């Protein structure tokens, strides 16, 4: 009877529904610095494009192309995909010219290096304003250097000197001896102004083009009721929806910096014309027009400064608003002022001849003083923010230079700008005057401004300081190697034969890798010396200009000879520095080893959005992070699945940034595997506001799981340094490197010291990967407090 009733009940309820098909898990691989191919990442020569383009794309093995239709085939292993972003930071050798924009990139870095003080602290706004003003001064410095090269040295000095222009046929139509229509001083410098004008136009075009190509990727929509429930000012910076979409701020800064460049050219032209009219005692309409135009240029410059000060990033939501008419019209107003200034300067003035140096070249001293004051202001503001961070318990004391590294890096940006501009001016002056020395008695031209010569004189002293620290670094390597060497054999099988040379080589690699942690000391020392020597150069140039005839009066012959030698050597070092940057940039895109050597510094610099300087190199992360976020969000939404995102080196930073951009529901379904990761070692120390301990701890708390692999021989990657009460440490290491000390049956040849590369060859990597994938295979996230689960940090 019971069985009949059960059968009837079952018939009434209908047949049981089949169990739901479990969707496969996804493993998303992200490569690091230097790039690679999807075939190498996936270990298969046959790959297919899943989504993306020639710049950045997601690939999958050809056999996995229809994995979603065959979920039963992927119960043990997930579907593997590779995200290749190497074309975002590499390309043809022409991109080496981007190294000319290095000072702009360094200034932009200083914006993101502010201490991890509470977001409501008023010092944040002051810090950002000071960095933006310093970035604006670098644009003015670059355009002023272009004016110095074209207007002063070429059109004013060399074209106006028969001894200098002789033998230069390309300068014949500008020579006063030819008596041509363009031989007057005013018209010569107007023609020469085309060079800085083209430079400003090129920077504007490059900034606009690179933003459209790399940085206009919109973030994915978020589920309501997740991270939007948290007030914007309380969200970690990298979780804000508008962090990787700064459309409006870049456009506003581009307009302001373009206007500043155009106004710098107009000021150079007007200063020469107004100075002549004043000295000649000319009155009437021409003189009045000059002063009116100069006033107009100053008013537009004041408006430009106001726009820069009021241009703050809006990260709470993607900023799609257009700029106001005043901001969009500012470059056109500056261009109109420049055209009127050119007409005024080109007006015929009988008796006008070019003299010593172009009037207004003393502005270089003013720019140097302004930059020094801005750096000191940054230093004080950073100290206040760091004190506030300590009061509120933010940070663990590992911030570089005790939180003052932002001001130090900003000073380095100014120094790089001075080397590039001074080197270009010094080398051109040496080429124009033939075998003579510019500025010396009997020389055909006066040469660059006195300040550039003083800056060249102090450069050898700075180089001596750098060499001294290099020697100290060598001593440190030797001491650490001797300390570590006795412990190396104990890390391996005791049955292996001892080899002192092998142990010394491994210990030396560990010692050299540890120099990365000493970088803040070198940066701080160089910045202190640079600030002192820069102040001395400005003071010396001012005294020389005030009393040029008594500059060397009473100076011993030995001191005078040493100063002349330092100036000459510094001039050559400046020029060599410009040439070296170009060669390194060219080799970085041609030679893989050079790319790996300088790639990490370049990729760290171009990782951040252009928040302070619109002419900095483009931010590849504003394309890569939305790409990864979209892929993870659409996978979990369409397949109701879970995934592991695996990142090496800089790829681990992109992976973490992309996970931060997910909503909380999706983020809880993602596990993170990082190896050779600079997240804490570089980003946590140098960018504590975004990658500090609180931010990384919050990321760990909100995602499914996280494991990090690291080696002592790795100069870039390191531990994350997060521990959780009641749960495992996310750091697994240090891993043995090399895998075998000597020759064994498993390693008949000496095992290679891998350092930063090939983490996948270590068995620990595969064990960790299998552990994360097994957790995903359960289909449900582990609860807090469950054995093996990630505990609340």
From TrEMBL:
The keyword Membrane appears for this protein: yes
Assigned keywords, A-Z: Membrane, Transmembrane, Transmembrane helix
InterPro entries (alphabetical): AB_hydrolase_fold (IPR029058)
Segments for region (Disordered): 1-24, 214-235
The keyword Secreted appears for this protein: no
Transmembrane segments: 129-151, 189-206, 255-274, 286-313, 325-343, 363-385, 406-425, 458-480, 521-543, 569-589
Protein name (Swiss-Prot/TrEMBL): Integral membrane protein
Organism: Streptomyces rimosus subsp. rimosus
């Amino acid at each position: 009877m019971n069985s009949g009733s059960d059968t009837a009940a079952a018939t009434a309820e209908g047949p049981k529904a089949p169990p739901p098909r479990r969707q496969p898990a996804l493993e998303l691989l992200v490569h690091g610095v230097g790039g690679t191919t999807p075939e190498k990442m996936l270990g298969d020569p046959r790959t297919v494009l899943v989504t993306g383009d020639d710049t950045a794309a997601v690939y999958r093995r050809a056999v996995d192309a229809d994995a979603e239709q065959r979920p039963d085939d992927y119960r043990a292993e997930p579907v593997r995909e590779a995200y290749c972003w190497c074309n975002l930071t590499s390309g043809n050798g022409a991109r080496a010219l981007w190294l000319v924009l290095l000072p702009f990139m360094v200034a932009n870095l200083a914006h993101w290096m502010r201490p991890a003080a509470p977001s409501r602290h008023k010092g944040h706004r002051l810090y950002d304003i000071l960095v933006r003003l310093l970035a604006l001064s670098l644009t003015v410095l670059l355009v002023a250097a272009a004016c110095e090269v074209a207007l002063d040295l070429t059109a004013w000095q060399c074209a106006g000197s028969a001894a200098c222009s002789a033998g230069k046929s390309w300068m014949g139509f500008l020579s006063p001896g030819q008596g041509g229509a363009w031989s007057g001083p005013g018209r010569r410098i107007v023609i020469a102004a085309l060079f800085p004008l083209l430079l400003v136009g090129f920077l504007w075009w490059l900034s606009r083009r690179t933003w459209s190509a790399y940085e206009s990727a919109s973030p994915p929509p978020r589920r309501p009721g997740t991270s939007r429930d948290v007030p914007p000012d309380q969200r970690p910076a990298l979780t804000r929806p508008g962090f990787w979409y700064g459309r409006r701020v870049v456009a506003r800064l581009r307009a302001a910096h373009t206007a500043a460049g155009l106004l710098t050219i107009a000021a150079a032209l007007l200063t020469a014309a107004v100075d002549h009219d004043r000295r000649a005692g000319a009155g009437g309409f021409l003189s009045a027009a000059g002063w009116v135009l100069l006033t107009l240029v100053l008013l537009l410059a004041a408006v430009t400064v106001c726009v820069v000060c009021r241009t703050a990033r809006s990260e709470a939501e993607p900023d799609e608003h257009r700029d106001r008419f005043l901001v969009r019209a500012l470059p056109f107003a500056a261009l109109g002022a420049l055209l009127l200034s050119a007409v005024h300067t080109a007006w015929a003035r009988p008796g006008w001849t070019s003299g010593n140096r172009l009037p207004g070249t003393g502005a270089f001293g003013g720019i140097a003083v302004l930059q020094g004051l801005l750096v000191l202001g940054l230093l004080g503001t950073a100290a206040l923010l760091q004190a506030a961070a300590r009061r509120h318990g933010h940070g663990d004391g590992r911030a570089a230079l005790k939180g003052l590294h932002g001001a130090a890096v900003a000073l380095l940006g100014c120094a790089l700008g001075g080397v590039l501009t001074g080197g270009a001016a010094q080398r051109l002056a040496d080429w124009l005057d033939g075998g003579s020395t510019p500025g010396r008695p009997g020389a055909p031209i006066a040469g660059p401004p006195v300040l550039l010569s003083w800056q060249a004189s102090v450069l050898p002293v700075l180089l001596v300081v750098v060499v001294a620290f290099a020697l100290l670094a060598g001593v440190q390597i030797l001491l650490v190697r001797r300390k570590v060497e006795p412990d190396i054999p104990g890390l391996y099988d005791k049955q292996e034969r001892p080899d002192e040379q092998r142990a010394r080589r491994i210990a030396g690699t560990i010692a050299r890798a540890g120099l990365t942690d000493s970088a803040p000391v070198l940066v701080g020392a160089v910045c202190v010396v640079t600030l002192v020597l820069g102040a001395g150069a400005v003071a010396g140039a001012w005294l020389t200009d005030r009393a040029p005839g008594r500059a060397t009066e009473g100076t011993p012959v030995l001191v005078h000879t040493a100063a002349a030698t330092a100036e000459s050597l510094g001039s050559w070092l400046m020029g060599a520095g410009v040439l070296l940057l170009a060669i390194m940039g060219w080799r970085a895109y041609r030679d893989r080893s050079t790319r790996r050597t300088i790639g990490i510094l370049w990729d760290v610099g171009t990782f951040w959005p252009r928040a302070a300087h619109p002419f900095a190199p483009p931010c590849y992360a504003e394309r890569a992070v939305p790409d990864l976020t979209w892929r993870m969000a659409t996978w979990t939404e369409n397949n109701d699945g879970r995934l592991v995102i695996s990142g090496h080196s800089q790829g681990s930073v992109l992976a973490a940034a992309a996970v931060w951009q997910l909503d909380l529901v999706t983020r809880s379904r993602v596990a993170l595997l990082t190896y050779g990761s600079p997240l804490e070692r570089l980003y946590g120390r140098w960018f504590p506001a975004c990658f500090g301990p609180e931010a990384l701890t919050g990321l760990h708390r909100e995602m499914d799981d996280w494991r990090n692999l690291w080696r002592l021989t790795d100069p870039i990657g390191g531990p994350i340094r997060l521990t959780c009460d009641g749960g495992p440490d996310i750091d697994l290491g240090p891993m043995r490197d090399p895998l075998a000390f000597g020759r064994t049956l498993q390693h008949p040849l000496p095992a290679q010291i891998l350092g930063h590369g090939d983490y996948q060859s270590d068995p620990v990597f595969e064990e960790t990967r299998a552990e994360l994938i097994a957790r995903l295979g359960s289909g449900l996230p582990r609860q807090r407090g469950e054995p093996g689960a990630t505990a609340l940090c």
